[in-house]
Amino acid sequence: MKIEGWLFAIGAAFFIPLSAIYWYFSRDPIGTTALALSGGLSIIIGFYVLYTAKRVYPRPEDRLDAEIDEADPEYGFYSPHSWWPLFVSLSAFVIALGLIFAVWVIVLGVAVLMLALIGWLFEYYRGAFAK
Question: Domain span at residue 114?
Answer without folding.
Answer: 84-123
